[in-house]
């Protein structure tokens, strides 16, 4: 049960990571998997790609297909809606971090 709760909680963090990087430059799945792994999120492509597709469906990401070495690679960038969601998520994350941080010092 604890694992399931943490997965739900971390899904939001993962989506914020995706928005952050997709705003900086176009991202693709394999690169994003490695980036998330560097932050301690070990997930499979079978977990990541549905998240990317869902974020695209929700209007947060825009997908562009490019031919890379004869293969089609899907790159994602943030939409205007995705940028606005990222701004709001950052505000909430900073606020939450401030509360959690203050909790330790009490």
UniProtKB/TrEMBL annotation:
<dbReference type="InterPro" id="IPR036388">
    <property type="entry name" value="WH-like_DNA-bd_sf"/>
</dbReference>
<feature type="domain" description="Transcription regulator PadR N-terminal">
    <location>
        <begin position="18"/>
        <end position="85"/>
    </location>
</feature>
<dbReference type="InterPro" id="IPR052509">
    <property type="entry name" value="Metal_resp_DNA-bind_regulator"/>
</dbReference>
<dbReference type="Pfam" id="PF03551">
    <property type="entry name" value="PadR"/>
</dbReference>
<dbReference type="InterPro" id="IPR005149">
    <property type="entry name" value="Tscrpt_reg_PadR_N"/>
</dbReference>
<dbReference type="InterPro" id="IPR036390">
    <property type="entry name" value="WH_DNA-bd_sf"/>
</dbReference>
<protein>
    <submittedName>
        <fullName>PadR family transcriptional regulator</fullName>
    </submittedName>
</protein>
């Amino acid at each position: 049960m604890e694992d399931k709760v943490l997965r739900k909680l971390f899904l939001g963090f993962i989506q914020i990571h995706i928005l952050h990087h997709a705003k900086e430059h176009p991202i693709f799945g394999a690169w994003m998997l490695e980036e998330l792994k560097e932050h301690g999120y070990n997930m499979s492509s079978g977990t990541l790609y549905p998240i990317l597709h869902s974020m695209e469906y929700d209007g947060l990401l825009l997908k562009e297909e490019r031919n890379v070495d004869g293969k089609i690679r899907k790159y994602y960038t943030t939409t205007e809606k995705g940028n606005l969601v990222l701004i709001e998520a950052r505000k909430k994350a900073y606020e939450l971090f401030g509360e959690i941080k203050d909790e330790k010092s009490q």
